[in-house]
Amino acid sequence: MSPVPAFRRPVSGFTLLEIMVVLLILSFLVTFLITGGMDIFRTADRAETENRIHQLASMIETWRTREGQYPDDRLPPGLAGNTVNASSEALFLAFFDPGYRGQRPDPDWLVNTDRDETIKNHTILDSRELFEIGDAWGNPIAYFESLHYTDGVQSLRAGVDGEEGGDLWEQEVRARQDQRTGAWENEGGFQLISAGPDGAFGTEDDIANFGR
Ligand SMILES: [Ca+2]
Ligand SMILES: [Ca+2]
Predict the structure, then answer these.
(1) Least C-beta-crowded within 10 Å: which of 35, 174, 197, 206?
(2) What is the pLDDT of residues 35-49, one digit of tens each?
């Protein structure tokens, strides 16, 4: 009677169990690397947006020193075909005006989530695009000048994946008040607000030039 080769190991290669263990370890590793990598990107985008808002705030103060008032958060009448993104576009026009001699935001920050243009070029850029000043996720940064805190809502086109044609929608954004006291944040100054990584204004992850 010939012996039954039940427990004979294959001559070469791995058993099914060994292969499954290796695959399992690999899948853990890949998951760990992907989530860890995404966390790193998220942290970097947040730091980049905080830096932009910090620099913008400083440029707005310089503007005020030079011009005697903060940049308007409204567009001149008749300049744009819509009111979407108007405050961020107004800030863009102010800083990129050919007559302005102060420091300007980095052109790499510019986005145009509502894809509008002006009839003629009003800026130092070789473009008629009515840009907004964007955060690291490609969404426009909302700008409120304190004279207009009480004017009600702004409409901003923002969302996930920003300018990459992702899931964008028009959002109503208001100047922020302290939740406890009801006082305007940065009363007498201005507010800069990014929708943060979730692309939605008014949620916990928003980034602003004032404490929340
Ligand atoms: Ca625009
Ligand atoms: Ca948000």
Answers:
(1) 35
(2) 777 777 778 999 999
DSSP assignment, residue 117?
B
Query: Rounded to whole angstroms, what are the CA distances from 142 to 30, 66, 180, 182?
Result: 38, 22, 23, 20
The Å distance, Cα 40 to ligand 2 centre, comes to 18
How many angstroms separate the alpha carbon of residue 153 from the centre of ligand 2?
A: 17
User: Could you tell me which of 57, 53, 163 has the C-alpha nearest to residue 110?
Assistant: 163
pLDDT exceeds cutoff 80 at 122: yes
Distance 106 CA to ligand 1 centre (A): 17
Using DSSP's 3-state secondary structure scheme, residue 43 falls into: helix
pLDDT per position as a tens digit, 140-173? 999 999 999 998 799 999 998 755 567 899 999 9
d(CA 58, CA 209): 10
